[in-house]
Design goal:
two-stranded antiparallel sheet; N-(5'-phosphoribosyl)anthranilate isomerase; alpha/beta; aromatic amino acid biosynthesis; TIM Barrel
């Protein structure tokens, strides 16, 4: 288990402009996310490329810059190739029903890190650590669905299920399932990232109560659907201290 003193990484998802990126790039943010799946935050590969170019320029000047994450839902291989030929992403985040063998193949073909999202339905019963050993027997629902990915991806992200887009709903799920997810991630040797309805007001409670490796936020740092620099600053401060 990692050091309890380490603060979780921060991912700000759904960026749409260089102007916003320039206003937040000096914050201790570990990843920024671009949405290529159906969403009001969806951007083109060219828009992402502009932001990536800005980050590369800063990196060449000696600045620390966040990694870039592209969010996809059940993309075809051609769609991925089209995006990655224009926007040189560091990480692909799969938010759909992508199979483990697909994840392995994509990692190898494109030379990127790959995160897999597990979306949790709030009507699913909470999972506790005591039943973790029963994963192989099919007891643990969504955690059992994760198990085939333990050698196929680099990180797992848990989010609230959305019936339209799968995730990205801006709603929280039952946090009492986090300890079991954390135990699974440790057993798989990969980070656990938590999303779903996080904002500056509740993220402090999350990281105080649970040991996780990263947090992911989008709508929780927006005002009227637009990224709010003050909310991003407050969110990052609550996480990183």
């Amino acid at each position: 288990m990692g050091s309890v003193s380490k603060r979780p990484d921060v991912k700000i998802c759904g960026l749409q402009s260089v102007e916003v990126l320039k206003s937040i790039v000096h914050f201790p943010i570990s990843q920024i996310g671009f949405v290529f799946a159906p969403s009001r935050r969806r951007i083109t590969p060219e828009q992402a490329s502009e932001m990536i170019s800005f980050l590369h320029e800063r990196a060449q000047q000696g600045h620390r810059v966040p990694k870039t994450v592209g969010v996809f839902v059940n993309p075809t291989r051609d769609e991925l190739a089209d995006v990655l030929s224009v926007a040189k992403l560091d990480i692909i985040q799969f938010h759909g029903e992508e199979a483990p063998e697909t994840c392995r193949s994509i990692k190898e073909q494109f030379g990127v890190e790959l995160w897999k999202v597990s979306s949790i339905k709030n009507e699913e019963p909470p999972v506790n650590e005591s039943s973790f050993s029963d994963i192989k027997d099919g007891v643990n629902g969504w955690i059992q669905r994760l198990d085939p990915y333990r050698d196929a991806v680099d990180a797992v992200l848990i989010d609230t299920f959305d019936p339209v887009y799968g995730g990205g709903s801006g709603r929280t799920f039952s946090w009492d399932c986090i300890p079991a997810a954390r135990k699974w991630a440790l057993s798989a040797g990969m980070p656990l990232i938590v999303a779903g309805g996080l904002n500056p007001d509740n993220v402090g409670d999350l990281i105080e109560q649970y040991e996780i490796d990263g947090v992911d936020v989008s709508s929780g740092v927006e005002t009227d659907g637009v990224k709010d620099i003050a909310k991003i600053a407050a969110f990052v401060e609550r996480v990183t201290g």
